[in-house]
Structure formats: structure tokens, C-alpha cells
Amino acid sequence: MQNVLLIILLLLALALIIVVLMQRSEGGGLGMGGGGGGGGGMMSGRGAASALSKVTWIVAAAFLSLCIALTIIAARESGNASVLDRLGVEQPERDPSLPAQLQGDLLPPSGGLELPPAAE
Fold it and tell me: With a threshold of 0.90, does the pTM exceed it?
């Protein structure tokens, strides 16, 4: 199921790239530029731009919702398993005679580190 959704996501990404590149650059950004005719017909410059922007919004919304759906599906399938659990790698046993710093823990022991006195 995830593979099918990933392929659809890839196609949506390509469609979004194509639709964005097809739009005419107006130079001002945020709709500030562009002249165009005053007719406002569907196939005029402004009408084509608004149609492409609607298509862009639709493809972008589909892309975003599919990303969220894939994230939810992946989170449900992973559960609480660790990556090491999936690989079948056994965790090394701890040697109680060694301090925690030498056993791979990143955090210091709960009592803190004891430093030797400074030599003067």
C-alpha cells in the first residue's frame, strides 16, 4: 500500500513542478504585476493564470494530504519497535564492573562525575 502511495506522491510532485513552471512570471510576486487585457475571458492571459493557479492549489493540497497520510501510515506500522529490533542485532550485555561512561551511555551517571583535585 505504501509503495502505491509513494508512486502517486512522486507523480503529484512532478505534476506540481510542471504546473508551477507553466505559470507566467509576472515579475512582482503576490499578484502585483502583469497587465493583460481587460476582457477577463477564460482564455485571456489573466484567465489562464487563474486556472493554472487553481490547478496548482489542487495539486498542492493533494500532495500535502498524501504526505500526511503516508506519515500516519508509517507511524502506525512502526509501533514501538526499534530499528535494532528489526535488524535482529543483539544488544551487548553490560559489565557491572565497568563505570557507565565506558559502557556506551551518553549521559553521565546519576551521581555526577567526580573529578580529581587540581594539582597546584
Answer: no
Yes or no: say if 104 and 113 are a contact pair by the CB < 8 Å rule. no
Task: Give the largest Cα separation in the chain, rounded.
Answer: 89
Q: Where are the alpha helices (DSSP H) in 2-98?
A: 2-22, 45-78, 83-87
Cβ(30)–Cβ(24) under 8 Å? no
Q: What is the per-residue pLDDT across 34-76, written as a single tens digit (0 to 9) for each?
A: 555 444 445 555 666 688 889 999 999 999 999 999 999 988 8
Give the total residue count for the chain.
120
Sign of the CA dihedral 79, 84, 86, 90? negative
